[in-house]
Design a protein that fits this description.
The chain has a single domain (about 5-35, about 55-180), classed as Jelly Rolls. Helices cover about 15% and strands about 45% of the residues. The chain has helices at about 20-30, 60-70, and strands at about 5, 10-15, 35, 40, 45, 55-60, 85-90, 90-95, 105, 110-115, 115-125, 130-135, 135-140, 140-145, 150-155, 160, 165, 170-180. It is globular and about 50 Å long.
Length: about 190
């Protein structure tokens, strides 16, 4: 497996999943059933269709998180002075886009497992191709989806899922988790 860097900690892993794995995940997502995707606001989850209008499935699968993490681990952003790579988030999201659906400019939210473990990167896998539109756009570059390819980028990176013009687009998303090297200390007063 190779890593293609786009700069600013954005990179892809072509052929991260095989065609048969992609087909299996699409079938699984359809069996689980999609619902309209909300966005997180100060007031909680809300449907705001001029920001995001695609469909989503949310599920937890620790075994899948471990399996995919072990495959990706050699190519992931590793240690820093303050943080140590710890795994994938067990919370997964399938996204489905049909024509005219999109997710406009945004930053991805983080997941805090404990006081000392937090997600910092998005790990997104395109499960199919052969549709028109639907590219992932950053301010200075556009990533054209390919079936089985993973896209990795920092949560704080502004991006958008461009409008799908034709076909159906399927994506599997999770997060890359990091632990603090110096755990947070709690003091009693």
């Amino acid at each position: 497996m190779k890593r293609i860097d786009y700069g600013a900690d954005i990179f892809t892993l072509p052929d991260f999943l095989s065609p048969s794995e992609c087909e299996q995940y699409i079938a699984l997502s359809q069996r689980m059933g999609y619902e309209e995707a909300a966005i997180q606001t100060r007031n909680g989850a809300e449907l705001i269709k001029d920001v995001r209008n695609n469909d989503r499935v949310i599920f937890d699968d620790p075994a899948l998180a471990q399996h995919l993490f072990e495959r990706a681990r050699p190519l992931l952003p590793d240690d820093s002075p303050d943080w140590r790579l710890s795994g994938f988030n067990e919370r997964f999201r399938f996204y489905r886009y049909v024509p005219s659906q999109f997710f406009t400019w945004h930053k991805d939210g983080f997941y805090r497992r404990t006081d000392d473990e937090i997600s910092q990167y998005t790990f997104l896998i395109y499960l199919n191709d052969g549709y028109q539109g639907g590219e992932t756009e950053f301010k200075w570059d556009i990533v054209k989806p390919e079936a089985g390819m993973a896209l990795v980028f920092p949560h704080l990176m502004m991006h958008q899922g461009r409008t799908l013009d034709a076909g159906v687009k399927y994506v599997l998303r999770t997060d890359i988790m990091y632990e603090q090297r110096q755990p947070t200390r709690h003091y009693l007063s």
